[in-house]
Amino acid sequence: MIDPVVLKGFRDSLPGQEIPKKRLISKLEEIFSLYGFSPIDTPALEYTSVLLGKGGGETDKQIFHFQDNGGREVALRFDLTVPFARFVASHAGEISRPFKRYHISKVWRGENPQKGRYREFYQCDFDIVGVDNAYSDAEILSTMAFCFDTIFQGDSSRYMFHLSHRGLFNEFLDSLCVRDRSVEILRTVDKLRKIGRDEVARLLSQETGSAEKAEGILSFISVVEKEDFLATLARLEGLIGHETASSKRMKDIHTLLVQEGIADRFMLDPSITRGLDYYTGIVYETFLTALPSIGSVCSGGRYDNLASLYTKEDLPGVGSSIGLDRLIAALEDLGLPILGSRGSADLLIVSEDKAGSYEEDVKVASTLRSRGVRCDIYPFDVKKMKAVYDYCDRNGIPLVLIHNWKGERILKDTRSKESVVLEASEVAGAVEDRLS
Amino acid sequence: MIDPVVLKGFRDSLPGQEIPKKRLISKLEEIFSLYGFSPIDTPALEYTSVLLGKGGGETDKQIFHFQDNGGREVALRFDLTVPFARFVASHAGEISRPFKRYHISKVWRGENPQKGRYREFYQCDFDIVGVDNAYSDAEILSTMAFCFDTIFQGDSSRYMFHLSHRGLFNEFLDSLCVRDRSVEILRTVDKLRKIGRDEVARLLSQETGSAEKAEGILSFISVVEKEDFLATLARLEGLIGHETASSKRMKDIHTLLVQEGIADRFMLDPSITRGLDYYTGIVYETFLTALPSIGSVCSGGRYDNLASLYTKEDLPGVGSSIGLDRLIAALEDLGLPILGSRGSADLLIVSEDKAGSYEEDVKVASTLRSRGVRCDIYPFDVKKMKAVYDYCDRNGIPLVLIHNWKGERILKDTRSKESVVLEASEVAGAVEDRLS
To answer: A292: distance to nearest CA of chain B, Å?
Structure first.
């Protein structure tokens, strides 16, 4: 007998987890396609050299890599960004400019598993590449707003997009003459929520060589004129000393968000810098009002050059990534109905004598299925109802239609325990009423 | 510069491939859930010992396996059946009996790539385990019929399910006293379509030690009373010598298919045996009327014991697997509309002066999106239309709404080349008319 265990850091997804996850993914896919994003897919396995590029980072240690039977060095993808960069270089002649894609798929990292971190997990990325202007920035932001409005059923007070611009921050570092240390400073600032203000101040003092400059940076990233985007922007311009290309871009984006009627979902928050060197334009994170502690559930930004490792073509772009696992955990905590029922079916049809009632039962099922009702038929003659209720309980099925040996049809709601006796012609309508 | 190549036998999926694939998968998922099947997922990577079981077969050479950073022997799954067997053993206490699951996901095999065969491909499996009776056999068949009726938009003349029963074949081998060679004989018979009658006759003569018995087997599997299930069954019973448990089960299943009104989609074809030792009850393959040469697009059968490698619990079941890649290729050949448009959007909105028209354009897009129309907004001011038509062509977008500097709105159909000038209030309706 082989022990049926999964690897450390990996997990099965049972129906109770998989049903809501699929529902959320399919909702997001629908929204991406309403905005003209196309799905793509790339192989799970690629040449290690293609995935690691210059390499040398943290990623190298975490990647699952090996030599295949043909002696090639291969690895499982650890994110969807690197394969996307490789993809646009591979298919340069086949794709349009701009190119708008989404990709929702699994990635693998050999990190040490801890609460909420797994070695196999989903990423959900969407990007617009081949264009650098305020319209495409606004379109990514609009897509995010549509996703979150849908998830929260129009209640935009449930979340807030925190938006900033990497250029603003860099221009401020210029004004302090510490731009050459920007990589370290960015990484430090990015840890603010994790390690706190005092520790950040200590590190920044080291990095800038001046407690005063460290305080300057901390006050810059703390500028938030409550709910007033333009006032915040004006104060940041004041600290930098003048209007800049970045502050101009932020004004243009804000105008577009106002015209679209979604500006209230965005606050200008200069503490958002995103740690990665990669970003060059707008950067953003998304926090849930009721669950700030779980961190950002949707993040991203604008970059100058997606695929410089693989092609000489300049490919500026802007993209966003939804933290699916984190978002699902949050929605479950909040009990929001977007994830729908976890049940495998809406109705279970059972018979005391299957041979006698099969024909009618499959007709009822067929009618209901054509109206979108998920019907399961219990495959045994039923003598005792306990097994049936256990089955419903395990599978989250709310309604049972019992066809007894007298030929009666009884519809039972397992939630309210109410029963009603029905004529054959009344069954479909009664089931639909109970479900709505 | 790194060469952006993918591994031999692997491939990217571009939007033109990924959009129809996703549409088909989502249609199938919807049908599975209408029948009360639940989705599950399992890790891509598992212990090699768990996946290979007793091992020693062809699979061992084809599997992608390696030692992970923790020194574990791990492998990428090569099918969805073995992980499912492991899954039901791992979660015996958490799942119901019967348990109905579907699983659509990628698997990996290091086979030598050839036309239509890749090292990474999809499998689409659905099974009912924990029950062995005619009702659950009929339910798998009914689910298949619903899938194919949907795919072929109600035209059931487009496909035929070829159904048989492993027991019938074994009982006939009993009557010839060659049951002890059944494994080899099954494998030979399974090659009939590939290697032809003569070669099968030669091999069977070797295996049974008798040219007469070989001919007997060949005539048994050739019994097909055109379109009459019960007449074929009666002749097979005649050759076996009497009614058997298997022929009785086939009659019961046929009665259920008749009651459900779907019996015409199934022919009894004793040449269907499925090579694998694994099957013990009904077995089936599915052929497309217009494309018989592509082989079966949906196959499976009943098995006695799903998870005997991992648990002592008896888990009989019945399952089916749709050959997604093959089916998609066939549907494309046949030009069937189930796969829908390959386009990334239904409408592209362009402006000669984006700054002047943005507010109206996003309003139009927002109205249309709320009605399910996929709208893309071109992110540049448009001076020459050539770039726009190239973009539509690349992305398969049929309609363009042009907002010119005079404030006029022109709707152009890139298929018919027709244009019409519209008032703002007419745009949404005109777009919907053109799309329907």
So the answer is: 30
Domain co-membership, B308 together with B360: no
Do the interacting molecules here have an ipTM over 0.90?
yes
Q: What are the phi and psi torsion angles at B386 (to 5°)?
A: -55, -45
Q: At residue A56, does pLDDT exceed 70?
A: no
Q: Does residue A306 contact residue A129 with C-beta atoms inside 8 Å?
A: yes
| CB pair distance less than 8 Å for B38 and A50 | no
Same domain, yes or no, for B119 and B246? yes
CA distance A249 to B307: 60
Domain that holds residue B165: 15-339
Q: Do B282 and B204 sit in the same domain of this protein?
A: yes
Q: What is the CATH number of the domain that holds A428?
A: 3.40.50.800
Q: Which of B214, B220, B119 is nearest to B165 (CA)?
A: B220
Q: Which of B68, B366, B380 shows the shortest C-beta gap to A64?
A: B68
In the numeric block, the tokens 């088909």 are attached to B24
Chain B residues 353-392 with a CB less than 8 Å from chain A: 354, 358-359, 362, 366, 369, 372-377, 379-380, 390-391
* CA neighbor of A284 nearest in space, from A269, A294, A295, A299: A299
Q: Is B100 on the interface with A (CB under 8 A)?
A: yes
pLDDT for the residue B63: 94
β-pairing, A375-381 vs B419-422, is: unpaired
pLDDT (average), residues B133-161? 96
Mean pLDDT estimate for chain A: 93
Query: Is A219 domain-assigned?
Result: yes
Residue B111 predicted with pLDDT over 90: no
Residues 6+ apart with CB under 8 A from B431: B346, B347, B368, B373, B399, B401, B411
Q: Tokens 């679209």 correspond to what residue?
A: A260
Inter-chain CB proximity A38 and B15 less than 8 Å = yes
Is B328 in the same domain as B395? no
| Interface list for B 245-274 with A (CB within 8 A) | 256, 259-260
Domain closes at, from B339, B362, B387: B339
Among B299, B323, B339, which residue terminates a domain? B339
pLDDT at position A114: 73
**Banded model confidence at residue B359, pLDDT cuts 50, 70, 90:** very high
Has residue A34 got a pLDDT over 70? Answer: yes
Q: Does position B206 have pLDDT exceeding 90, yes or no? A: yes
Same domain, A211 and A180: yes
Please report which residue ranges of B396-436 form alpha helices under DSSP H: 427-435
